UniProtKB/TrEMBL annotation:
<keyword id="KW-1133">Transmembrane helix</keyword>
<keyword id="KW-0811">Translocation</keyword>
<keyword id="KW-0813">Transport</keyword>
<feature type="transmembrane region" description="Helical">
    <location>
        <begin position="284"/>
        <end position="303"/>
    </location>
</feature>
<dbReference type="GO" id="GO:0005886">
    <property type="term" value="C:plasma membrane"/>
</dbReference>
<comment type="function">
    <text>Involved in protein export. Participates in an early event of protein translocation.</text>
</comment>
<keyword id="KW-0472">Membrane</keyword>
<protein>
    <recommendedName>
        <fullName>Protein-export membrane protein SecG</fullName>
    </recommendedName>
</protein>
<dbReference type="Pfam" id="PF03840">
    <property type="entry name" value="SecG"/>
</dbReference>
<dbReference type="InterPro" id="IPR004692">
    <property type="entry name" value="SecG"/>
</dbReference>
<dbReference type="GO" id="GO:0009306">
    <property type="term" value="P:protein secretion"/>
</dbReference>
<feature type="transmembrane region" description="Helical">
    <location>
        <begin position="233"/>
        <end position="252"/>
    </location>
</feature>
<keyword id="KW-1003">Cell membrane</keyword>
<dbReference type="GO" id="GO:0015450">
    <property type="term" value="F:protein-transporting ATPase activity"/>
</dbReference>
<feature type="transmembrane region" description="Helical">
    <location>
        <begin position="21"/>
        <end position="41"/>
    </location>
</feature>
<comment type="similarity">
    <text>Belongs to the SecG family.</text>
</comment>
<keyword id="KW-0614">Plasmid</keyword>
Length: 308
């Protein structure tokens, strides 16, 4: 009598555990769906924070260029070498750049603005590494500087309404002093050496042509986004429907705890290895759950690609 009572309580306990496990899975499913869509726990940097990081890195790049002095502009000089004192200063500035890179890497790069600032920061870090070498070609150093300037022009034009800060305007002036000027081409922006005699000041608007190119690109991207929006909405509706169907299928499936407890009883051991395969409705529910899970995975992958 006591044995039967123990079995009854054990079965009730197993059923309760099974229900709790299903409830935990249902609660965990939305979290997994959000993670599949690319939604993480990283902090999002605001536009003002990104602009601050951009200006700080520009200041560091100008300061590092100032440590080289006239070596980067003198025509007779072919190589650049910093003194030990200036190398120590550059190393301190490099720590600030590394801090900025870590801050950007630990943030959510949802749009092109943080990605562009990160790329710009990496270019500044590369420029500092070149300066720390024993002897570096002046041409290589100036080339890296003007590549950073081009990236900065794209950021200012696209994400800062074409209004460059005083620091970045100084970077443009320094870039022209090295013999480069901005020139817009059909596939973006490049810098081309200029033969003008007066290189001390910027005599043209470096953003005017660039704004035209970026405006055309933004219009094309807007058209693509508008055409893509109906598909995104449709996939989201399909994802919600599949999730609800999956939850329903999980609750409709019979519990397997009873079979496990019967296998441990005196008479259940004989049927442990002769248990029939699921048939009928049970088999349909299991196969439907597998198909529904696979469909959710496919929809999440497609939706993630469309939302990039």
């Amino acid at each position: 009598m006591s044995t039967n009572t123990g079995r009854i309580y054990t079965r009730r306990y197993c059923r309760l555990v099974s229900k709790k496990a299903k409830l935990a899975f249902v609660l965990l499913l939305p979290v997994l769906m959000l993670a599949g869509c690319g939604i993480g726990v990283k902090k999002v940097l605001s536009n003002s924070q990104l602009k601050t990081e951009f200006n700080n890195n520009t200041r560091i790049m100008l300061s590092a260029r100032g440590y080289a002095g006239n070596q980067v502009t003198n025509k007779k000089t072919k190589t650049v070498k910093l003194s030990k004192t200036n190398q120590e200063k550059v190393k301190k500035e490099q720590k600030e750049v590394q801090r900025s890179l870590n801050k950007l890497n630990n943030s959510r790069l949802l749009t092109g603005y943080p990605r562009s600032v990160k790329s710009y920061t990496e270019g500044v870090n590369k420029y500092l590494n070149l300066l720390l070498q024993d002897k570096i070609s002046k041409k290589t150093l100036n080339k890296q500087f003007h590549q950073n300037t081009v990236k900065g022009m794209e950021i200012v034009s696209e994400y800062q309404n074409g209004k460059g800060s005083t620091l970045f305007n100084l970077a443009l002036t320094a870039d022209e002093a090295s013999g480069y000027k901005p020139e817009v081409k059909s596939k973006g922006v490049t810098l081309k050496p200029t033969k003008t005699k007066n290189k001390s000041t910027v005599t043209h608007d470096p953003y005017k042509q660039l704004r035209k190119v970026k405006k055309q690109e933004n219009e094309q991207n807007h058209i693509k986004k508008v055409n893509r929006e109906p598909r995104v909405i449709t996939l989201k509706i399909v994802l919600i429907a599949l999730s609800a169907l999956l939850i329903l299928l999980i609750f409709l499936q019979p519990s397997k705890q009873d079979d496990a407890m019967n296998a441990l009883s005196d008479t259940g051991g004989a049927t442990l290895f002769t248990r029939p395969k699921p048939r009928g409705m049970q088999r349909l529910l299991i196969n439907s759950t597998r198909v529904c899970t696979a469909c959710i995975v496919v929809v999440l992958i497609v939706l993630n690609q469309l939302m990039k």
